[in-house]
Design goal:
Largest sheet: 3 strands, antiparallel
Helix content: 40-55%
Oligomer: single chain
Structural class: alpha+beta
Strand content: 5-15%
Length: 98
């Protein structure tokens, strides 16, 4: 059993949402913490950050699906000397690190 909240996760605005086993919705993360103030507020960097926040939320919400897909790939693709195999194993180890 994994230590992270089971998927699927979904992006709701800048919040990454999941559910516990009983169906209760929980906020897993928020991707809107970076903001520019003063002269920078509403400027190009602030607009870029808001766009990146949305993209980050989409990527993070896909994490459980990608994790399961990578585990599935290892079941059908076995070439421990191949760079792709090593990359998949490395990514799974990173995800499972505590």
């Amino acid at each position: 059993m994994s230590k992270f909240t089971a998927g699927p996760w979904r992006a709701e605005g800048l919040d990454i949402m999941g559910e516990w086993e009983d169906g209760e919705s929980i906020t897993i993360a928020n991707c809107g913490a970076t903001r520019f103030c003063g002269d920078e507020a509403g400027g190009p960097k602030d607009k870029r950050m808001k766009a990146e926040d949305k993209a980050n939320a989409a990527l993070i919400s896909a994490a459980p699906d990608m994790y399961e897909a990578l585990k599935g790939i290892l079941k059908v693709y076995y070439n421990p000397d191949g760079p792709e195999y090593k990359a998949v194993v490395s990514a799974l180890k990173k995800a499972e690190a505590l």
